[in-house]
Amino acid sequence: KTKILIIGPSGSGKTSLVKQLTNYTGKCSFIDLDLLGHHPGGDPDKWLINVEAIQALISSDNAVVAAGISTNWKQYVSLKWSLVIALIPTDSALIHQGVKRDRRSRDVVQEPEYYVEAAHAFRTEVVPYLIKNVNHLVQIKFNDLDLAVTRIKGIVKTIPSLNRFIAKPMSARN
Questions:
Q1: Phi, psi of 11 (to 5 degrees)
Q2: How far apart are CA 40 and CA 106, in angstroms?
Q3: Contacts by 149-153, CB closer than 8 A, 24 or more apart
Q4: Considering only Cβ atoms within 10 Å of each terminal Cβ, which end of the chain, N or C, has fewer?
Q5: Are 101 and 67 contacting, i.e. CB atoms less than 8 angstroms apart?
Q6: Mean pLDDT of the residues in the chain
């Protein structure tokens, strides 16, 4: 079965993308990896995701789409994914998405510099690692998340093991 990882900097729209793909597809497991994470020892600068839990999910017989980013991203990026999608927003897109997310979740609204730094770190540390170490990588560079979602839906539609799960529009069901 197909196993897809969506990775991107904090605030890039990973969770929004998973929610939209959930509405677009049917019998596929969608996992927000943030739900599997924790701050070790209460350290707010570290966010670790349970790699063993991810391994169990991708070892299942279900098609899986997972999204998240954490301090230990290298550990789960190296698992056996069919496809890794890297969301690479422009600084302005990341600021817009991040602040929107912060306000929606009633979280502390980060300063724009926080998102610019996150985007820079992702582009300079994570993306080069992915290019070097991931066999099936799609880079989605964007300034508008909605356009990126449309591109990703097009990619998902071409994956045979997910294609049979694509929900038909309501008018086609009648």
A1: 90, 5
A2: 23
A3: 149/13, 149/16, 149/17, 149/20, 152/6, 152/17, 152/21, 152/85, 153/20, 153/21, 153/24
A4: C
A5: no
A6: 82
